[in-house]
């Protein structure tokens, strides 16, 4: 289901199927929120996207207003009331004035035949503005989707870091028990007990710090997605859908990036506005049809009716140079729009290059960090055996334990940075919603219905606070391919 954000696109079927799927997911016994559901909920219900959606709908109405210039205008005018007349007609009849009940009605039709291409240019301009805003909406949904991906990843990361801190604290607790037993038996040194006591306290503090960071990540998730992150499904790498080279990624971004397409549409709108301003140098020709009924008008008793059908030309010969100044103004606005587009082009290329660099570097870092974790595990295990035999000091063992802990944390951080860099590239080529199979609702009403359904289900959900088992990133296969 490839994304195509258009006002005539998705109807009640999407809303009903989306709500049904959401109920099934949330009330499933083994419910865990997946990335697709989180991103979809964020995009459909977040005010940032809804603002752009309403702006898009507003511009569609402006387009309809512009098209009305091709249509005739029909006006009905009717009036009746007291009239006192003193004119040549009344005086010629011997009256100074005459009082009558005036009655009149008229029906006129005005059809534009030629307006110097003003209406055509305005329709072209509004079409371009609709396209520009459609791309802004598309860009906003992609950016918000990426923000949702980021918050999703941050929750998973901090839960993994929390698990590592818990594991580290347990390791220090085991060593503490061992050293305390030796000290109580009289074979251990007092300094060793003090050393492990301090290290265990430090491990406890680290765990509390990770707990705070996790709560912050979950709060940020709630703000962006609109749901509390109870259990989350693991997130996997998506290398298979990414471009193979940086140049290929740049080319795809230049072809698909919604912000660049919006900038191109703005140029088209500016050119159309320039053409519309030149209409002032042409005459305007209208066809006017009219029918008028009158009774007791202007002191004359009886009916006074007429029918008219005539073309009418209006041509301004001099306006003080205003029209030419407006032409020059709009020409400058065209150049401004072009330079904004050129700057957007550079920003898109910069964004892709930065995203590709992060993707490439983190992929390479993971190879060495995995090697560091494996080597640190072997060192820690060897030091533990040697410590038990009295061939290693407690400080050596604690340092090896801490090095392993830090190595695992760094690999976890780099792993999730690598995943996020992949999604940055997906957003750069405008494929996030297509990748996650997300389609925006077609109307504001459908969006509000789906929003309410999400809210109702989320409020009624009885998901436990227990998080799903974490998928350790430490066993993830890493390759430079």
TrEMBL record:
Subcellular location, record wording: Cell outer membrane
UniProt xrefs under Gene3D superfamilies: Outer membrane efflux proteins (OEP)
This protein's UniProt keywords: Cell outer membrane, Membrane, Transmembrane, Transmembrane beta strand, Transport
Domain of life: Bacteria
GO MF annotation: an example: porin activity
Protein name: Outer membrane efflux protein BepC
Family the entry assigns: Belongs to the outer membrane factor (OMF) (TC 1.B.17) family.
Keyword Transmembrane on entry: yes
Organism: Candidatus Thiodiazotropha endolucinida
NCBIfam families listed in its UniProt record: type_I_sec_TolC (TIGR01844)
GO CC, one annotated term: cell outer membrane
The UniProt record lists the keyword RNA-binding: no
SUPFAM superfamilies membership: Outer membrane efflux proteins (OEP)
InterPro entries: OMP_efflux, T1SS_OMP_TolC, TolC-like
């Amino acid at each position: 289901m490839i994304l195509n954000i258009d006002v005539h696109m998705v109807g009640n079927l999407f809303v009903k199927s989306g709500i049904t799927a959401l109920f099934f997911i949330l009330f499933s016994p083994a419910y865990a929120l997946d990335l697709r559901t989180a991103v979809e909920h964020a995009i459909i219900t977040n005010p940032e996207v809804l603002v752009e959606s309403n702006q898009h709908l507003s511009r569609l109405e402006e387009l309809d207003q512009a098209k009305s210039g091709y249509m005739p205008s029909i006006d009905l005018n009717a009036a009746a009331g007291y009239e006192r007349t003193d004119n040549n007609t009344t005086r010629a009849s011997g009256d100074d004035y005459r009082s009558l009940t005036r009655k009149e009605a008229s029906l006129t039709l005005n059809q534009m035949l030629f307006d110097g291409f003003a209406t055509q240019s305005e329709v072209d301009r509004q079409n371009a503005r609709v396209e520009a805003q459609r791309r802004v909406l598309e860009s906003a949904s992609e950016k918000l989707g990426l923000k949702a991906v980021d918050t999703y990843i941050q929750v998973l990361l901090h839960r993994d870091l929390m698990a590592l801190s818990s594991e580290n604290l347990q390791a220090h607790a085991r060593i503490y028990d061992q050293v305390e037993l030796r000290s109580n038996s009289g074979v251990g040194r007092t300094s060793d007990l003090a050393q492990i006591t301090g290290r265990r306290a430090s491990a406890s503090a680290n765990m509390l710090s990770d707990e705070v960071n996790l709560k912050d990540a979950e709060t940020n998730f709630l703000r962006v997605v609109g749901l509390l992150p109870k259990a989350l499904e693991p997130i996997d790498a998506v290398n298979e859908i990414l471009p193979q080279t940086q140049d290929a990624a740049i080319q795809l971004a230049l072809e698909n990036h919604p912000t660049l397409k919006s900038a191109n549409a703005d140029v088209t709108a500016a050119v159309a506005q320039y053409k519309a301003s030149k209409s002032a140098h042409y005459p305007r020709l209208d066809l006017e049809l009219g029918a008028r009924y009158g009774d007791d008008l202007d002191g004359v008793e009886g009916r006074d009716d007429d029918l008219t059908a005539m073309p009418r030309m209006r041509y301004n010969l001099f306006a003080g140079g205003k029209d030419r100044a407006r032409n020059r103004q709009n020409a400058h606005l065209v150049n401004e729009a072009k330079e904004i587009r050129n700057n957007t082009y550079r920003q898109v290329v910069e964004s892709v290059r930065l995203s590709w660099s992060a993707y490439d570097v983190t992929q390479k870092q993971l190879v060495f960090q995995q090697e560091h974790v494996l080597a640190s595990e072997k060192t820690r295990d060897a030091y533990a055996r040697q410590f038990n035999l009295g061939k290693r000091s407690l400080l050596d063992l604690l340092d090896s334990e801490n090095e392993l802990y830090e190595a695992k944390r760094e690999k976890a951080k780099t792993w999730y940075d690598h995943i996020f860099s992949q999604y940055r590239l997906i957003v750069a080529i405008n494929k996030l919603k297509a990748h996650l199979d997300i389609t925006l609702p077609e109307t504001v009403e459908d969006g509000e219905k789906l929003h309410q359904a999400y809210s109702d289900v989320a409020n009624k959900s009885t998901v436990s606070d227990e998080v799903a088992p974490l998928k350790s990133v430490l066993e993830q296969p890493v390759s430079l391919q």
